[in-house]
């Protein structure tokens, strides 16, 4: 690697991904559950859009959002897991500089879109339970397409500057990324110069995506809970709660690790590094699965 013999390097030829620091000897076996989860996630999420497209009774807002979410899951898992498994099983730790930036773009864009789709599904549940008579008029097909397009555009526009800012920064002689994939902050930590702009922009994106989406989801489910508790019929309460439970589990599976990673990276919580990396790796498997 051209960067290793000099004090600084504006564009290193490649990075070395260290996978899970401290657990290199166990990573061969750690890879098996990740591989199983990846295969299941790929099969499930590839099947969902096809089934929804061919079944007329599923041409409803919730299922269309689920199809978008499934496609996003495919991108999210594929952007991290194949390279991760090649590191764990084949020792293929090197990743070219521009490939690293490309992976960074797809990882963070798909994560942003995933968050947006979960927010859209929470809003769909809110409208279906709190405003059932207006559901079809509020969430029409054009409205769903517009919402999906806005979520995708938000992800692309907010994440694109990550790679542009990183390309302009000088890197130190140590080009070893203490991670299993090219995560933004893991790459920025290798910078020799002033990376304040990248760090601040990363915080801005995190608050714009995670902060905004978590707020909307929290308000939606708080309102849904109030509406459900006001229902007089016990069966109606159970049916309404069952509609939201599975989505709420997925939301928790996605946001709890994401918030853990955000807090660990930004505020230096006293968490073992291998735990941080394992949790980061889990973001690409359990939620899609």
How would you characterize the overall build of this protein?
The chain is mostly helical. It has one domain: Rhodopsin 7-helix transmembrane proteins (Rhopdopsin 7-helix transmembrane proteins). The chain has nine helices and five strands. The strands form two sheets. Strands 3-2-5 form a three-stranded mixed sheet. A two-stranded antiparallel ribbon has the order 1-4. The radius of gyration is 21 Å and the shape is elongated. The model has no long low-confidence stretch (mean pLDDT 83).
Short description:
By secondary structure, the protein is mainly alpha-helical. The chain has helices at 27-54, 61-90, 97-130, 135-138, 141-167, 184-188, 196-229, 234-267, 273-282; strands at residues 8-9, 14-17, 94-96, 171-172, 176-177.
Describe the SSE topology.
Blueprint: E1 8-9, E2 14-17, H1 27-54, H2 61-90, E3 94-96, H3 97-130, H4 135-138, H5 141-167, E4 171-172, E5 176-177, H6 184-188, H7 196-229, H8 234-267, H9 273-282
Parallel strand pairs: 2-5
Antiparallel strand pairs: 1-4, 2-3
Helix pairs in contact: 1-2, 2-3, 3-5, 3-7, 3-8, 5-7, 7-8, 8-9
CATH level 3 topology: Rhopdopsin 7-helix transmembrane proteins
Mass-distribution shape: elongated
Strand content: under 5%
Number of domains: 1
Number of discrete helical segments? 9
Largest sheet, strands/sense/barrel: 3 strands, mixed
What distinguishing features does this structure have?
single chain; 289 residues; mainly alpha; Rhopdopsin 7-helix transmembrane proteins; 9 helices; 5 strands; elongated
């Amino acid at each position: 690697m051209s960067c290793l013999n000099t004090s600084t390097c504006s564009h290193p030829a490649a990075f070395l991904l260290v996978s899970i620091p401290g657990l290199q000897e166990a990573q061969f076996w750690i890879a098996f559950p990740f591989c199983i989860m990846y295969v299941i996630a790929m099969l499930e999420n590839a099947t969902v859009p096809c089934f929804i497209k061919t079944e007329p009774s599923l041409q409803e807002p919730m299922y269309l959002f689920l199809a978008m979410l499934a496609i996003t899951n495919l991108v999210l898992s594929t952007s991290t897991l194949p390279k991760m498994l090649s590191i764990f099983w084949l020792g293929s730790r090197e990743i070219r500089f521009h490939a690293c930036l490309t992976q960074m773009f797809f990882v963070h864009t798909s994560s942003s879109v995933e968050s947006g789709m979960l927010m859209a599904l929470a809003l769909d549940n809110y409208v279906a339970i709190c405003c059932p008579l207006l559901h079809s008029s509020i969430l029409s097909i054009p409205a769903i397409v517009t919402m999906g397009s806005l979520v995708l555009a938000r992800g692309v526009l907010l994440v694109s500057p990550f790679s542009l800012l990183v390309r302009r920064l000088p890197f130190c002689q140590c080009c070893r990324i203490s991670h299993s994939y090219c995560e933004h902050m893991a790459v920025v930590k290798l910078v020799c110069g002033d990376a304040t702009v990248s760090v601040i922009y990363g915080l801005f994106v995190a608050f714009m995506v995670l902060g905004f989406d978590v707020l909307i989801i929290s308000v939606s489910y708080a309102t849904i809970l109030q509406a459900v508790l006001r229902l007089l019929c016990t069966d109606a309460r159970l049916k309404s709660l069952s509609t939201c439970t599975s989505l709420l589990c997925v939301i928790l599976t996605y946001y709890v690790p994401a918030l853990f990673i955000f807090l660990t990276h930004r505020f230096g919580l006293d968490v073992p590094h291998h735990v941080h990396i394992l949790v980061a790796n889990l973001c690409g498997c359990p939620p899609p699965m």
